[in-house]
UniProtKB/TrEMBL annotation:
This is Major facilitator superfamily (MFS) profile domain-containing protein. It is found in: Membrane. The chain crosses the membrane at residues 30-55, 67-86, 98-118, 124-145, 157-179, 185-207, 273-296, 311-334, 341-360, 450-476, 488-509, 521-539. The keyword Transferase does not apply. GO terms for molecular function: myo-inositol:proton symporter activity. Its main location: membrane.
């Protein structure tokens, strides 16, 4: 029952979630239908990483310009920033259900435009449309699920949105692999995303509006009908009463005043909630997760794996671990708590990023040398910078790949890829000649005996990130704001997430070129440590608390540094006071 925190709830939340939804499949239907928005979010995040490999092959201008590659990835993020910002206002004005329907329509249009794009410019336009839909869905889906979930299993059900995000990412890698040999490769990869958007549009037409939003708009009878479908008969009247008291208190306090930024910042509970919620969303991106998801195959190639198909196949492992981690989150989020899970997650992420920084330092410092004999074997295609070099004997693979007038590639030794190879002009003709002699062709990274360690580092990063930082920021943001401000604050937090995402997506490849992959991951590692300290100081534990109780806690809470100790339940505090 909402308003009471049972002692056994934490220990059995996962089992209770399945038990309650099995008895009342209506709750599960609401959660998974809205959660398809998470699937769209995840699919778009993952699919572009594989599609980009083939877009570079089709459009040579994209292959030559790092900024254009980053723009194709990040323009969807730019659209998502606008979508999230508008989505916050739309959620409060027209409701959660209508916002999801509009998001589906925009995503479908974007998928069609991308699949038919004749040039990079129109492809970018399609990415913007998809981004608008993803941005709206990213903050609306968990909000809808949270408001349609009983308090006991709210965290577990909102985690299904996180599971569908990671499930969408895993699905995108499978789709990428399925179409690697099909005509049009990347067009199929991007266009097929319209199908889940169409499915969710149909399902949401058959579902009701959020009961909490209806209550706020004075449509109490409609809300009560839905709440009676969600809650058991002995709990529903208590939930209705709690909602009524919460809404009436807000109306008395705010009157008819309009929501504005100054109002948000002057309200103590909202201000504290925004610091925690926005901060989590920013750190979620700045620890580098979407560099892994957007550029995973490219990172694998930087680690020394040459083939597009091999890079996609190995990236599938990270996507699978990400999906598995979100399942783990469903179990632990209401058992362990949001804060403790965040801290464990950030600690592991920092360690993993340190490992990646070390591995990439080794892969770039110890690369095969360029052999004059191997290069002369392809005498008509020798890299011009190598031919004119004053000391060609000092050239290794990495120096060959950095040559830019014109671009050059490294054709590995036919007997052992770690032996000296040839530095040649980079074009399709030379690539085919290299492959015809059963040699590997490198343009992104160099052969390395440490490449497998990079895969271990990526796997550890995902294993630690996904259960905590992957889902908890969205859950905390769906719980921490007062009802009246929830849509707007959720929009602000989601917008902060997407702005941070844009900064990372638009700068990652440029950073790796400017300072190296090793230093780039080291910067992410330092940010992870700062994020860990932020969680300790600013993020409250909201596990198992009804939304009304969270408001009271934000109003009076002190910093809880000893996060490993259980907080007193509201009932215990009252009994001690008596």
């Amino acid at each position: 029952m909402e308003g009471v925190v049972h002692t056994g709830t934490d220990a059995s939340a996962f089992k209770e979630c399945f038990s309650l939804t099995w008895k009342n499949p209506y709750v599960l239907r609401l959660a998974f239908s809205a959660g398809i928005g998470g699937l769209l979010f995840g699919y778009d995040t993952g699919v572009i990483s594989g599609a980009l490999l083939y877009i570079r092959d089709d459009f040579k201008s994209v292959d030559r310009q790092t900024v254009l590659q980053e723009s194709i990835v990040s323009m969807a993020v730019a659209g998502a920033i606008i979508g999230a910002a508008v989505g916050g206002w739309m959620n409060d004005r027209f409701g959660r259900r209508m916002a999801i329907l509009i998001a589906d329509f925009l995503f479908f249009i974007g998928a069609v435009v991308m699949a038919s794009a004749p040039n990079p410019a129109l492809l970018i336009v399609g990415r913007v449309f998809v981004g608008l839909g993803v941005g709206m869905a990213s903050m609306t889906s968990p909000l809808y699920i949270s408001e349609a979930s009983p308090a006991k299993i709210r965290g577990a059900l909102v985690s299904t949105n996180g599971f569908l995000i990671t499930g969408g990412q895993f699905l995108s890698y499978l789709i990428n692999l399925a179409f690697t040999n099909a005509p049009g490769t990347w067009r199929w990869m991007l266009g097929i995303a319209g199908l889940p958007a169409l499915l969710q549009f149909i399902l949401m037409l058959l579902l009701p509006e959020s009961p909490r939003w209806l209550f706020r708009k004075g449509r109490e009878e409609e809300a009560k009908v839905i709440l009676r479908k969600i809650y058991p008969a002995d709990d529903v009247e208590k939930e209705i009463q709690d909602l009524k008291e919460s809404v009436e208190a807000e109306i008395r306090e705010e009157g008819c005043a309009k929501i504005n930024m100054m109002k948000l910042l002057k309200t103590k509970t909202v201000r504290r909630g925004l610091i925690a919620g926005v901060g989590l969303q920013v750190f979620q991106q700045f620890v580098g997760i979407n560099t892994v998801m957007y550029y995973s195959p490219t990172i694998v190639q930087l680690a020394g794996f040459a083939s597009n198909k091999t890079a996609l196949l190995l990236s599938l492992v990270t996507a699978g671990l990400n999906a598995l981690g979100s399942i783990v989150s469903i179990y632990f989020i209401d058992r362990t708590g949001r804060k403790k899970l965040l801290l464990i997650s950030l600690f592991g992420v920092a360690i993993s990023l340190g490992l990646l920084a070390g591995v990439f330092h080794e892969t770039t410092s110890h690369t095969p040398m360029v052999s004059r004999i191997q290069t002369s074997h392809f005498s008509n295609y020798t890299c011009r910078d190598y031919s004119s070099a004053t000391n060609p004997g000092a050239w290794d693979c990495m120096k060959c790949l950095k040559a830019s007038s014109p671009d050059c590639g490294f054709c590995a030794s036919p007997t052992d890829k770690l032996l000296p190879g040839a530095c040649l002009l980079s074009n399709d003709t030379v690539k085919d000649l290299c492959h015809d002699e059963s040699r590997l062709w490198y343009t992104r990274g160099c052969p390395s005996k440490y490449g497998w360690l990079a895969l271990v580092g990526l796997a550890l990063y995902i294993i630690f990130f996904s259960p905590g930082m992957g889902t908890a920021p969205w859950i905390v943001n769906s719980e921490i704001y007062p009802l009246r401000f929830r849509g707007v604050c959720g929009g602000i937090a989601a917008t902060a997430n997407w702005i941070s995402n844009l900064i990372v997506a638009q700068s990652f490849l440029s950073l790796t070129e400017a300072i190296g992959t090793s230093w780039t991951f080291l910067i992410f590692g330092v940010i992870s440590v700062v994020g860990l300290l932020f969680v300790i100081v600013y993020v409250p534990e909201t596990k198992g608390l009804p939304i009304e109780e969270i408001e009271k806690m934000l109003e009076t809470r002190s910093l809880h540094f000893r996060f490993w100790e259980k907080s007193q339940k509201p009932q215990e505090k009252k009994s001690q006071a008596v």
